[in-house]
Amino acid sequence: xxxxxxxxxxKSSIKINVKFESLQIRALLDKNSNVIDGNNEKEILVKDExxxxxxxxNDNSEWTLIETKSD
Length: 71
Prior knowledge:
The protein is mainly beta and 71 residues long. It contains no helices and four strands. It has a four-stranded antiparallel beta sheet, with no helix packed on it. A hairpin with a 3-residue loop joins strand 1 (2-9) and strand 2. 0% of the residues are buried.
């Protein structure tokens, strides 16, 4: 699930906050593929918010990731 949760504009830029929700498997394995942290079989819900910015007075029209937040 992805959604824009906030947006703002200024004279020089536009910013949007996008919330991402995904199911992930988090596990740390040693060199022999043994789990030493986490669980490689259980999915967990991960919620992140990313902030993107686009400069208005710039010839580059790409968005830049400027901040990430995790719940």
